[in-house]
Amino acid sequence: MKMFELEKAIRDWKKSLFRSQKMEEPDIAELESHIRDEIDRLLKEGLDEATAFQKAVKDTKSFESLEAEYGKVRRLRFYGSAWNPARLLPAFAWSHLKIAVRKMRKQKAYSFINTVGLALGMTVSFLIFFWVQDELGTNRFHENADQLFRVNKKYQIGSETQYNSSTPYALAHATRENFAEVIDATGFQRIRALISFSDKEDSVFFENRVCLVDSSFFKVFTFPSIEGDPEKAMAEPDSIVLTASTAHKYFGTEDPLGKTLTLDHEKDFVVKGVIEDIPPDSDIRFDLFVPISSMIDPESLSSWGDHYPSTFVLLQDSSVSAEVEKKLSGLIQEQLPKEQISLVLQPLSDIHLYSSDGSEEGMKFVRIFSIVAILILVIACINYINLSTARSERRAKEVGLRKAVGARRMQIAWQFFLESVLFTLIALGISLLLIQMLGGVFHDLTGKTIAFSDLNPGFLLGILLITVFTGLAAGVYPALVMSSFKPVRALRNGFDRAGKKASFRKTLVVIQVSLSIILLIGMGGIEKQLRYIRARNHGFDKHGVLFMRMNRELQKNYEAFRNELLQNPDVASVARTFQPPGEMSAIIRGIRWEGMEPGESVAFGYIPVDYDTLDLLGMKIVQGRKFSREFPADESNFILNEKAIEAMDLKDPIGKPFSLNEDSTGTIIGVVKDFHSLPLNFGLEPVVLLLDPDFYSLVLIRIRPGDRREAISGIEAAWKKFSTGFPFEYHFLDERFDLYYGPEILAGKIFRTLALIAIFISCLGLLGLSAFVAEQKTKEIGIRKTLGASALRVILLLTKQFFLWVLLANVIAWPIAYFAMRNWLNNYPFRTTLGLPLFLFAAAAALVVTMFTVSFQALKAALANPADSLRYE
Amino acid sequence: MIEKALVAASTKPIILSILIRGEDYGYQIIQKVKDISGGSLEWSDKMLYPVLHRMEKEGFLVSQWKMSDGGRLRRYYMITEKGHKELDFERHQWQSVTKALDRLWKPLPSLD
Which domains does chain B have, with CATH numbers? Predict the structure, then answer.
């Protein structure tokens, strides 16, 4: 006869109960201790083990009846219905899921904090990931994208190497004809033009984005056509191609094909094609296209000396680019032997993020934001791990119980892991919602739109990976930690508080706070640099000045226009120049002066002014005089800036001869104090100022402080008198400057948003953590209070370790932030300093926010009734 | 055998009254009830534990697991503030009922 084994019988009995999905380990354990007590009693009365067992268990043997009793207490939702969801998942996974849901509902506050924290982290990462993807994919929509290269010019000025993308008119054609590796080449140039219509008197449009193209443009680039044949059209003189919205702007719903329009009141063009609007991810962006031969004379078109258009080449294969580069350089050196020019090819895919010399422009930001995205995700995961393991104190007993009842470590780990997965999925759902809601804000910040419909598989894969990574990272550690509690120890002592686990949590908190501090410092640094750039004195007064484009009529009537304006009390002065001051000017080489070394070459900014410009802009003359109507010779004279004098190494420049080229020579009559003729990130350059009426394309008007609107309407009235047929458009000089600092302004905004999000997530984590600490110290607090400790002392007790953690976080964060910011600022020749106040501010902010967050729990604990907390012992 | 409805109604006040004397675990509660009632109340585990859990859920009790020296895990129950109040309420009810019954049964000859 088989020996009756009591333990085995009990184990089997437990297993059968366990299979019932209404009873969980605590209930089973309770019943187990009950039947063991009963068995002990029956054994004392003299029964044998087998009978004692049978008797003890008789009430509980049939678990259907048990289910009925226990079932009345629990809320039945998943059982009893004909549709039994347990069949859809393996039974054990389903019950674990159910348990997970119930645990979540039980601890609503923690669940909420955890899930929100994760969701925020995921949302930010997704948005950044989307932005990065979009940036990297700019310009890639062209069919031949991989074979397209822009030709950049590399040239020497003195000892410096410069790059830009302005190439000779003749280059595209020559390249197309002479090199087998080049399938095609195209050159195009942007101009501004006035559009008018012979049959519509009042319709006049000023277009900024008109493109002069050759016949290869639409062959090389992919701009789908809607009507007509743009390719053919550009080979026919006097035809024009419009984008769809431009056509709509001019002609409404009428068919634009065959209609005529006039450019600059001079030349007529016939609409021969309409193309789709240029997609937002294209750097090549125009509204109208006109054959270059219709606007530029044949002599210029075949010249190698005029560098205006951009040239792109379509190679047979990207691997031949180095060869072609060499051949192109050879070509241009043949044509322009006196210049030291070579040509470099830049892949189309690079032009959005890298400048023509190959250095990183937008790419910098792509890198930075990718790192920030990862940082934020890390913070969110750290939060999750912290909060999960913080709750482990509570659940240690649960785990011990489970193990005592016989659950295996893997099962328990799996349970916790599933909980994490559940959280992550819910966080994913929330974050998708958030992305939808934040679409508008995202567009404001970045100019990009997220449309779920045209998300490519790459992006979706990215989202999936991020989610899985988050779920794993956040879930694995807590799962392993919590499932490893030893049952006896857990139940007896609470939980092994000392040692590794506590210090790991401390490390996580410190890391989180450090990251937030770094972001804060970064944000502060960027703002500081921006403020510095904006406030920096440009050397001329840019406030209160507006500028307008010159046109033919205005040119004729300029003096009368100016006199009329000067009658207006709101107008202070009127002058002319070539381009808005402070923007890139034309560069001129081939300048000669007295005492110049042979072979020496200095590049000058070329700034045409009139008699009134210097006064209007408030530029100071430090030597000599300014241009004056009293000196007719001034028409061939020059004013240089201090930097120019320095570069030429000229002593006593006043009166010395100076010439722009071989033909004309004039005299230096004055030296002007240095001013920023270029955007601040370029530094100062030597410039030459001269009276060159051919280049007066801009009218500057300084208005007196006061009501701008009144002044403008006065100016408009004068305009209408002297410049009919041209739309009245003006811009303010100071507003224009912000265009140059667009990337920095944007980066500042984005950094600010990200820093705030990181801090918010950290706060969530701190909230949970402080609750944990308060709970751990419940006993201690209770005792102290009964011994007479004040609420303040209790608060101090709870918060002092956070104070230390913040301090430590600062120690870590400051060096890292310092090096990162210094690195970034080195890109700017004019930069602000990273003063100590900035770091102190970040530290103080972190401290205040931490203490504020933590004090909620501390306060609650301090005010609680000590009797309650002691009762549990 | 006492009628089911009576047993059910008296479970709560009995449990609360036992726990007022100190914390206890399920098996022992059953023993005490058996002793106190002279055997007429024999609660089964099937009946007791669900009630204990329900009362805990309602906030009248709290439970804590303890390990005995012999290594046996037991779930101990303690009465709470709310439980005290509930007991007063129950006592009031029962005393009203028994007072009425006492008055009614007084003139009858002893029942035994």
Answer: 4-104 (1.10.10.10)
Asked whether the predicted pLDDT for residue A833 surpasses 70, the reply is yes
Q: Which domain holds residue A45?
A: 6-76
The answer to whether the CB atoms of A26 and B47 lie below 8 A apart is no
Which of A799, A871, A865, A809 has its CA nearest to residue A839? A809
In a domain, A95, yes or no: no
Residues A762, A861: one domain? yes
Contacts of B44 in chain A (CB under 8 A): 59
Q: Judge if A340 and A408 occupy the same domain.
A: no
**Does the CB of B34 have a partner CB in chain A at under 8 Å?**
no
Q: Do A51 and A67 fall into the same domain?
A: yes
pLDDT at A98 over 90: no
Q: Are residues A338 and A410 in the same domain?
A: no
How does DSSP assign A162-173, residue by residue? EEE---BTTHHH
Q: What is the value of pTM for the model shown? A: 0.63
Residue with tokens 């984008």: A243
CA distances from A414 to A310, A409, A422, A449, A825 (A): 61, 8, 12, 40, 49
Chain A residues within an 8 Å CB radius of B25: 33
Distance, CA of B47 to CA of B102 (rounded, Å) = 30
A840: closest CA of chain B, how far (Å): 49
Q: Which of B19, B45, B58, B64 to mutate to test the interface with A (most CBs of A within 10 A)?
A: B45
Residues A728 and A760 occupy one common structural domain: no
* Smallest Cα distance from B109 to chain A, Å: 41
How far lies A761's CA from each of A114, A378, A385, A767, in Å? 9, 11, 13, 10
| In a domain? residue A119 | no
**Top-confidence range, A8-22, A349-363, A555-569:** A555-569
* Residue pLDDT, tens place only, A497-510: 444 456 666 777 78
Average pLDDT, chain A: 80
Single residue among A736, A753, A780 that ends a domain in this structure: A736
Say which of A26, A29, A72 has its CB closest to residue B50. A72
Record: contact A60-B49, CB cut-off 8 A: no
Q: What are phi and psi of A510, to 5 degrees?
A: -60, -40
> Quick one: A431 and A288 in the same domain?
no
Residue in chain B lying closest to A26 (CA): B75
Q: Structural domain tally of chain A?
A: 4
Taking only the tens place, the pLDDT of each residue in B2-59 is 888 888 899 999 999 999 999 999 999 999 999 999 888 989 888 899 899 999 989 9
Distance from the Cα of A75 to chain B's closest Cα (Å) equals: 11
Say whether both A679 and A720 belong to one domain.
yes
CA distance A69 to chain B (A): 7
Using an 8 Å CB-CB cutoff, list chain B residues near A404. 73
Boundary of a domain, candidates A24, A55, A76: A76
Count Cα atoms within 13 angstroms, Cβ side, for A117. Answer: 32
Residues A557 and A507 in one domain: no
Task: Please tell me the distance in Å from B26's CA to the nearest CA on chain A.
Answer: 7
Contact list, B45 vs chain A (CB under 8 Å): 31, 34-35, 59-60
Q: Distance from first CA to last CA of chain B, Å, rounded?
A: 16
